[in-house]
Amino acid sequence: MSGDGPLPLEGVPPEDPDDAPDSPHDQPPEDPSQEWPSGQRVDENYGQAVNAGNINGGAHFHEYRDYTGEETTRRLRRATRVSQARIDDVLETFCPADARAYAAFKAELGRHHTGVITGEPGTGRAMTAIHALATLRPDVRVQEVVADPDARDAGLTGLVAKSAHSRLLDLTHLREPTHLQKAGVRALAEELREVGALLVVIARPREWESEESEHRARLRIKEPARTEDVFRRAMSRSQGSVCADRWSRDSGVRTVLEGAGPVHAIELVRTAERSTPPEPPLTEDDLSAWIERTLKAFSDATEELRDWFKRHDQETEFRRVLMEAVAVLEGASTTTVVHQAHRLAERWRVPSVWRTPISGEGLSSHLREIGAHTRADRVWFNRPGRGADALDYLWREHPDARAFLQDWSWEVAPDLDWQVRAEMARRWLDVAVRHRAPAPIESMIDQWGGKHSLMWAAVPAVAEAAVSPELGPAIRSRLYRRATSRGVSLHDRLVVEVCRVYGRVQPGTALTRLGHVADKAPQAWEESLLQALEDIAAEPGNHAVVLEELSEWAGQEEKARRAVVAGRSLTRILCQGDGRSGVLGALRSGEIGTEPVAAAWVAASSADPRVGRAVWAWCDALSGVGPADAQGAVVLLHAAGADQDFGLVLRRSVRRWRHVHEASAPVIEELWRVLETMRTEEEQ
After folding, report:
1. What is the distance between the alpha carbons of residues 168 and 253, in angstroms, rounded to a whole number?
2. Looking at residues 324-335, what average pLDDT do you find?
3. Which of 95, 337, 399, 525 has its CA 20 to 30 A from that of 378?
4. For the chain, what is the radius of gyration of the CA atoms?
5. Phi/psi at 303 (nearest 5 deg)?
């Protein structure tokens, strides 16, 4: 884990006595309730060890879990609305509700670059927008611009929109858009139009009807595409038109699709693909057998559970409890499952089949009845996905049991080991996504966020929920309310960690919430805040938005705590990289322009006396490049010209760097020459 900032540079004394790194022993424990004794102690040490002959004065230990690894980031990218996997699904399955109106909209969008799709949620607005953007410019990346209903300007003011990527903007959750929010949308549309990028806005029809008049590309979707049409389209792309026609005529298929939505149709096609399609040429018997297999597999889970629940009522109702307990706790030890199943039964007032520890049949017989078994003294379902089916059935058929099951699961969490706890959080996330119900994740934030031992298991699930199209707005709003609440609690620390993770793929809304926590966070949390900001900035494409946001924080004198965090974070972010990566690398690749980086240098100088360290790091990087790669030096000069105080810091740092290094560097020498010329002109 990184320390409290960059180490002192070799041969360079601190710029002032306060510039020395803080001692880790000056920091209080992260959890004030856990005081460290004078001795050795490693608490909740997951997969880590300390080996030492003697440790004097006690050992301060803080577990650091890397939630921001590439696998986590890939998972978050897949969860977003415009991940490549989702775009591929749209291209394979999209079927417009009104083909003629859609064709006209798409033609107008291609000519005018901006368009508005209105309709109620669930009518296919997002799929329509993504399909239009992805097919009009198939080789251009599609990005989602996330509106933040909790921000006065919806997070759209000053948004960087220089690239030619196509954009999707969902305004559904801006129920009563303000004048400032509408102005932000218009400014974004105009900026994207200037760079030739495509933008599609989706919204409810009432709130944004006046805005539609400004866009010639308009489409109103009154109802979703017919389920039968979606099925035929998806099946044709998967298996060919002849096969799709035969499936569409089948009475069993029509019965399954009747009254269902388009998503149901797509899932039926996916099931058909998994049901071992026969090899061509297909006979009528082959097709009939394939359809029968698919329909059986498609309806098995629900029908089987419905029949199973009918058989286990009253005298054997405890088995229902046991099934749901295993569905939540799968992988836990047998003693844990049995004990917690009894606690759940008490909540539901269901009598146990075991009056005493040795009453009735043994555990194995009851597990067989619910389709589960024990392995290595842990409980597992026999079939993968059985637990998800059980939770879904309970959610649909017994809605009054939802809150009871969630409250019970939060209570039992402290008794579980780390892995089972994390899997429980994942299962609740999956339930929430499948049913578009934010309640389980909101409850997890409230219940686990206030407990240090549970908070960490919630972070990955909450972060993924925060970027998912099904749950994102509601979860981000809950995090915002926590971040802006009065006082400080561990819930605020949860917000920091969640934003640190999801901010890598959606930096704007994460930075808004981190700013509010920074206003009130205790000194002991500063390192966590700085690490969160560094991790967000480190993700390719995020430098511009992070530097601009932090520069704004640094200038907010009325929010002194936020300004301090911003200054230190800017210094550390500017220190990152070696000329090929970090901010310097982003400059060389054109990812970020000169102005925001120069402004960041000025902001860092005004808010952090340690900014000279970052200048020194840039001198190190620039010393190894030629004149053609000297853009970093140009940025430093821009900043020095814009701010006299930074100019003094820059001159002092470059002078000291030249004195320490015997070998001259052409770029540094030219930088020094220009700085001296600027100084002479100022004196005159």
Report:
1. 35
2. 95
3. 399
4. 29
5. -65, -40
